């Protein structure tokens, strides 16, 4: 299976990844090699990684898993670890984990000694098809998603689908939401293919999603234009994710679970504002509700979620900008939404 080439790095799948990793490390002669893990990837993925890695690892650092640990205090621990272990500008950090870990690890590497090399080895479906691709790194500010960070590309991304066998089904389904998004914003045929899938873990679909995201990111690395379409479902989805994270009476949602709700809501806004047909809207809703359990929101919940929209990273000059769909496979950016439509969108979701 061929690699996916970006402007400054490649994404390698399966055995190509193992060979590329070992060749890269041999070529660069790093002074120190560190591996960042969480308690899950240390147990389930690190042993397999160590078997394929032909070079010595200087040290391994474990952080706690979960979005609630994706903050600057965790970064401080990793920076202090790298410093205490004599990390220098010729060190390499290998991030072995899901989206939280690759986001945080990439940010740590990008800022330690003003920047050291890092390699992402995503271990969840979400991180394979989305989080580890494109160079976005960063952490949350309180419950507000990804407020602190930089765009900086890894040396390479290595995807080993066998790591997905270590995940509970809920985690795999969460990643599937981003794959469905890729079809919605860029390729209707891919959306139609994914809708009927029962197994989301096949390498060909993973490669297809990586290729779609990579194509968008390569055209617009710093999100000045087309890259914004990757945020479809994320404006309301991130607000929902943040709200559920900071309210103990709400079940904490995985990223994909929150984004799935966001895509239904923003699908409704698309129907009202940018021409998405009612047939396509209902198709989007039915497809996501087939895989994701509906979450109940009362009026107070909705008010609180809408207040969080002002923190969205796509906002400019006080305006909240949305990515909406003209049709399945065609997205448009920088759409301003009248406030009266938000409650109607939630009402459609509840129906």
Automatic annotation (TrEMBL):
Example GO CC term: the record gives: cytoplasm
Q: Name the cofactor(s) required for activity, per the record.
A: NAD(+); Zn(2+); Co(2+)
EC number(s) per UniProt? Answer: 4.2.3.4
Enzyme class, first EC level, given as a word:
lyase
Q: Name one GO biological process term.
A: aromatic amino acid family biosynthetic process
Name the keywords, alphabetized.
Cobalt, Lyase, Metal-binding, NAD, Nucleotide-binding, Zinc
What positions does the domain 3-dehydroquinate synthase N-terminal occupy? Answer: 61-173
Source species, domain of life: Bacteria
The record's listing under InterPro entries reads: Dehydroquinate_synthase, DHQ_synth_AroB, DHQ_synth_fam, DHQS/DOIS_N, DHQS_C
General function of this protein = Catalyzes the conversion of 3-deoxy-D-arabino-heptulosonate 7-phosphate (DAHP) to dehydroquinate (DHQ).
Q: Tell me the protein's name.
A: 3-dehydroquinate synthase
User: Which organism is the protein's source?
Assistant: Flagellimonas zhangzhouensis
